Amino acid sequence: MEVPRCMSTQHPDNVRAPFFADHPVLQGEAEIKEAYYAYSHLGCTEQMWDYEGKEVDNFVVKKLLARYGHFFRERRLGEDLFLTLRVPNPRVERAEAKVLLETLESIPRSYDAARAFYGEDGPAPIFEVILPMTTSAAELNRVYHYYREFVGGKERQRCFDITVREWVGDFRPEGINVIPLIEDREHLLSADRIVEEYLLDKDVDYQRVFLARSDPALNYGLVSAVLLVKIALARLGRLEKRIGVELLPILGVGSAPFRGNFSPRRVEETLAEYPSVQTFTVQSAFKYDHPQEEVREAIRRLNGSRRGRPEEVDEGRCLEIIDKVSARYAACVWEVAPLVNELARYVPQRRARKLHVGLFGYSRELDGHNIHLPRAIKFCAAMYSLGMPPELLGLSALNREDLNFLRDVYRNFEDDVRDALRYLNVDNLGFLPSPLREEADVALRIFAPEFDEDHQEITGRIASALREGARDGAALGELIVQAASIRRFLG
Known about the structure:
The chain has 20 helices and 12 strands. By secondary structure, it is of the alpha/beta class. Strand 3 (82-86), helix 4 and strand 4 (128-131) form a beta-alpha-beta unit. It is globular and about 75 Å long.
């Protein structure tokens, strides 16, 4: 069984709705179609099924096999194709805590549906879950042992006069793998320790580790996020060599440079930036905001590539830069947060989400400041709609030696910033807080951007509407979408 190179996800960063959806907000049956489309038409070999903060269909396996049996006869779910559940973390999402248990309970039912389809020798269609906001091995072990003891192990318990197995049948699989999704600075820097402790009593062929890229950027800035991921990858590489277990990182990258700059046109650049990553997320903008053939070809190239070796970095130097950039970034965000929150209200929904309050919910602490912010995609969309790419925030903290170091360690640094600078609207800077003007001035001195005039025209209209106190939500929402269509991502 080959671990996938690409994971299709349900991140709501797309501008356009896919052709199979009858509404721009994807949910329910449209997401069943989306999973099939990702597998069959795009060539993705994994689909994330996201229970964290959103509504999804509990009967996804049964529906996929019933509706698209011709396809899944040839490509077996759980063997050729992965379906991986992202579950709520009870430590931080108390209102959703029991959704975790309900989701784990659904795994044997999905196995029964697959067994009825494939026969007794069929694979388990679901055998891994992703735990977001992981901060310790104990959190992973709770999920791992709950499943083994209270779900898979339930069949051995007696119910009145018979065992549960005799009554309703066996519970398969007996156990599942738990993938940590690590999202904040402290725990990205201790990802190796968390994984090593979790694996102490387990005999596994491999262990996947999911490293966030969007939320670290939202909390610490673009440069800090990239360097944190690179340190985590280097440390995981050393751990892999020491314990002799294959550690296979997943990287959560989106299409905006702030969130990864991973689009069909930048597959090779992303592979070169993170050579030791096994799996890259293919989010909604990647799938729906580019021509289908271009998307298919990009995924074909991704699937045909091979994971490289982990790269070492100068961790001390990286941490110095992270400290400087994070502090400056936080100061800038503190100033612009009221404007971002106001504009984010008009960014259109693309998925049916529940209220999400957690480690990266609405209020967060940035370098000692408690700041109320939207989530990463809406933050990004709001900043771009203001004509101020968020990639620029924190750049003024860098000196010449820092920039030279970054050019060596962060290969795509200049390309990423230039890609973002295309959407800077210099005419809007007078409308923005002075720290943001300083960041733009620094970026313009270092780089030689080519501006997108159509995007500038639209973001100029957005700024004029806000300056004049206009609050026509429909009109602002339409302008936000027009600008996003030019970028080929919402946020």
